[in-house]
Structure formats: structure tokens, C-alpha cells
Amino acid sequence: MKILVCVSIVPDTTSKITLDSSNTRINSEGLTFIAGPYDDYALSRAIEIKDQTQAELVVLHVGLADSEAIIRKCLALGADSAVRIDTAAVDSYQVAQEIIQFAKSQSFDLIMMGKEAIDYNAGIVHALVAHGLGFNHFSPVMHLDVDNDKLTLEIETDSGKSKISSTLPAVLGCQEPIAEWKIPSMRGIMTARTKEIQVIAPSFSPKENPVKANVVETERLQKMIPVEEAESLIDMLKSENLI
């Protein structure tokens, strides 16, 4: 079996986030970056499956060279190899297209990633990838067992949890408690230093054109409308040229 784990790089949750001079992008100067916490859960469970089944485990990241220290940590944890697609991650669709094109060139049975990245929280990359590849798709996955080409999953639903069965190939968006986060061993760290991170050119050109939002939180009108005067809301919106 061949497993692909897709890892995002996000600002540390304790970081103070500011915008750059364009007011359309996060100012990365001085920020500490980490692997996406939900991706850590996916990687941890994939490592356990690799140890149980002797599967091949590949880590993939869409991003620039400044992410390589975090990718190497994934290798230290137990991934067999790592690939970096050399382009900035602009949006979910672009990232998904890069993953799809890379996966099509390989023969992956199982693709795992976090249910969402904690920066933009879109949570749609796994669904886009599954659709593009024609794989089964489940998210958020809280428990995973693999028996040959059979999967036993526990997923979170609106009404609680559901236990279901599926077959490979599949794309999974993962969350706790699918596995406990792992800490790299000294042997793993030393071994990771000798492993190559393959860098490949992007295959997709993003077309996003970010613009500045006009709504500023401190400039909101913050007017309260009594319930009995709800009909006056329309008149007020019209007078403020808001509709």
C-alpha cells in the first residue's frame, strides 16, 4: 500500500497576525510557522499504519523553500520520502489541483490530510482532491483501521458519530482523536538529515486576484433595531445606501 499525507504550513496559534502593506496578505515577518495541527493527526495515524502494514509513506507540501525544516520534521517522524511543489499556496483550489496532478503521476491507495488548515479554515481541499481523482472521500475522520483494501472509519456527523466501512482508494480529512501527536526520536532526526526532499515545478497557475475588503470592524454602524420595529430595517438600509 502507498500512502500520501498532505501537510500544510500555518502560523503558530500563539502568533499575532497582521496584514502586509497591501492589506490582502498576512505579514509573515516575525511569524513562527508549524505544520497544520490536523495534518499532524493525519501524519501520526499514517505512520502507525505504515509500521503495521509496511506501507510506503510519502509527505507532500505545496509551498516555498522556507517550509523545508517542517517537511524534514515529517521525515524524522517516520515518512519514507517527501515532495515539495515549488509554489506559494494561494487558495484551496490551486492546492487541490497540485495534489491531484501529483497523485495522478503516482499510484497512491490512501491520501490523508487534516480536515482543515487553521489559517483560512476552508476545509475543502480533501473534497476537491477526492473529486478530481474519483476516490472515496470522508471527513472529519476520528478513527481509522486498515485491513488490506478495506477501511473502517469513525466520522463526526451533525448528530454525533457514525461508524462506516469503505474500500480503497480514498481521501480522508482527519482530526483528533485519530492518533496521538508524535515526537521525532534522535535516530529519526539523524536519519531525516540524509533523506532528500524532492522539489518539483508546479503544474497549475492560480488565477486569484485578492482585493481589499471594504468592511472594517471598527466602522460598523452597530445600530440596534427593536423587534417590534423590524420593518424599519429596510428603510434604514436604503437611507444608508446599503441596499
UniProtKB/TrEMBL annotation:
GO molecular function, one term: electron transfer activity
Electron transfer flavoprotein alpha/beta-subunit N-terminal domain segment(s): 23-209
InterPro entries found in the cross-reference section: ETF_a/b_N, ETF_b, Rossmann-like_a/b/a_fold
Key words of the record: Electron transport, Transport
PANTHER family: ELECTRON TRANSFER FLAVOPROTEIN BETA-SUBUNIT (PTHR21294)
Protein name: Electron transfer flavoprotein beta subunit/FixA family protein
Organism (species): Aquirufa rosea
Source species taxonomy: Bacteria, Pseudomonadati, Bacteroidota, Cytophagia, Cytophagales
